[in-house]
Design brief:
With 317 residues, the chain is mostly helical. It has one domain: ABC transporter involved in vitamin B12 uptake, BtuC. The protein is 82% helix and 0% strand. Helix 1 packs across helix 13 and helix 2 runs parallel beside helix 5. The protein is globular and about 75 Å long.
Length: 317
């Protein structure tokens, strides 16, 4: 494997995107709204396409506005279906976000000449090609600049509203009694998730961005019980995911091809996919070996306790 400047920028950009996604991901995970975040990420697609069609440009401001409107609309429609149709909230979310996501894909197909947006780019991301042109000309890639902006914005919001987010996440009833308006906080989280998803589309795509949000957060949850430490751990895991994901996408396909076909040349697989695979692997390692909540560690502790409880006492002579 020959490491190049392009590989470095891929890792830097992937780490920034994944770290930015991990911040709202922690609060979504702790408030048991991971699937709601999943729905928001997918349901903003029609808002993006309609913004493209109205403005005839890929202006970031218009795109973000379309995403925010679509995210809020998703929340409103989900609550409407839940209350009026007496449908379980998870099921109502599934109905709304799948319908909106499918609508977005249809709009891409119908207006492909005007939108200039590749469906594969939206679904899976193109992190490799997003950085290559700028790197070849010695410039900082635009997708990297967006990732820095996204990370700073999410970090500032988390720092400014940490107390409110903590209370609204763990005790919505207390938050409501204190006048913190948990529903308003929930809509703010929806908007933050939608903006993060839009800025991450070009790098990891709409399908894999949810792995960047929930994977590091779930792994960090297994490592610590403190919220601030959990956010830091999630960001660290996110950065590690980007590095190992790039290595995985370059090394593993070539190794497997050489092993099973005796060929020695193959291009790398999708980097965002490699990052998602490594995100799952890091979660599995934490699930097994975490000092606090790891399955194998807990089993070993139980066996040790069981063995000590059955040790025969020594009687003095």
């Amino acid at each position: 494997m020959e490491w190049t400047a392009i590989d470095t920028w891929i890792v830097i950009t992937g780490a920034l995107v994944s770290m930015a996604c991990a911040i709202p991901g922690v609060f979504l995970f702790l408030s048991k709204q991971s699937m709601f975040g999943h729905g928001i990420v997918h349901s903003v697609l029609p808002g993006l396409i309609i913004a493209f069609l109205i403005t005839n440009s890929r202006d970031v401001g218009a795109v973000l506005m379309g995403a925010v409107i679509a995210a809020v609309l998703t929340g409103v429609l989900t609550q409407l279906v839940h209350k009026t149709g007496q449908v379980e909230e998870g099921a109502s979310l599934g109905v709304v976000f799948t319908a909106m996501f499918a609508t977005g894909l249809l709009l891409i197909r119908f207006a492909v000449d005007k939108v200039h947006l590749d469906p594969d780019c939206v679904l899976f991301g193109i992190l490799e090609t997003a950085v290559v042109d700028a790197v070849l000309f010695g410039e900082i890639p635009d997708v990297t600049k967006n990732a820095v902006l996204m990370l700073i914005l999410n970090g500032l919001l988390a720092a400014l509203f940490l107390k409110e987010l903590r209370i609204a996440t763990f005790d919505p009833g207390l938050a409501n009694a204190l006048g913190l308006r948990p529903k308003l906080m929930n809509y703010g989280m929806m908007i933050s998730t939608a903006v993060t998803a839009v800025l991450a589309f070009e790098s990891v795509g709409s399908i894999l961005v949810i792995a960047m949000m929930i994977g590091p957060a779930a792994t960090a949850y297994l490592l610590t019980n403190r919220l601030t430490v959990m956010i830091g751990a999630a960001m660290l895991v996110a950065a590690l995911t980007a590095l190992t994901g790039q290595i995985f996408s370059v090394v593993v396909p070539a190794f497997m091809l050489n092993t099973f076909t005796e060929l020695d040349s193959i291009g790398a697989t999708n980097v965002a996919g490699g990052m998602s695979v490594m995100s799952g692997l890091l979660f599995l390692l934490a699930l097994l070996f975490s000092p606090q909540k790891g399955i194998l560690i807990r089993r070993a502790a139980r066996r040790k306790l069981h063995a000590s409880s059955h040790t025969e006492p020594v009687h003095p002579q």
